[in-house]
Specification:
Structural class: alpha+beta
Largest sheet: 2 strands, antiparallel
Number of helices: 1
Radius of gyration: 14 Å
Order of helices and strands: EEH
Oligomer: single chain
Number of domains: 1
Distance between the termini: 44 Å
């Protein structure tokens, strides 16, 4: 079993090593991108 030492994004840290992460829905790392967040807020406010 591997223990992750970071949040899940497009990369994860485990035992001091950085790994690409393709197992979730944020494998491109766009969920925390400021432009994506701003567009989501605009859409919520509009609709």
């Amino acid at each position: 079993m591997n223990i992750l030492n970071s949040g899940v994004g497009n990369f994860v840290m485990s035992e001091g090593r950085k790994y690409s992460y393709f197992g979730g829905n944020n494998y491109l790392g766009l969920a925390n991108h400021p432009e994506v967040k701003a567009a989501a807020i605009r859409a919520i406010e509009k609709y």
